[in-house]
Amino acid sequence: MVGSTTRPLPKPLWLLAELTYACPLQCAYCSNPLDFNRYSRSQELTTDQWIRVLKEARQLGALQLGFSGGEPLVRTDLEQLIAEARQLGYYSNLITSAIGMDEARVAAFRQAGLDHIQISFQASEETLNDQLAGTTTFQHKLAMAQAVKKHGYPMVLCFVLHRHNIEQIADILELAIQLEADYVELATAQYYGWAWVNREQLMPSQAQLVEGEKIAHAYQERMKGKMKIYYVVPDYYEKRPKACMNGWGAVFLTIAPDGTALPCHEARQLPGLTFPNVKEASVEWIWNDSPAFNRYRGDEWMKEPCRSCPEKSKDFGGCRCQAYLLTGDACEADPVCELSPHHDKVVDIINRADNPKNTPLILRNPQNAKRF
Ligand code: FES
Question: Predicted ipTM?
Answer without folding.
Answer: 0.94
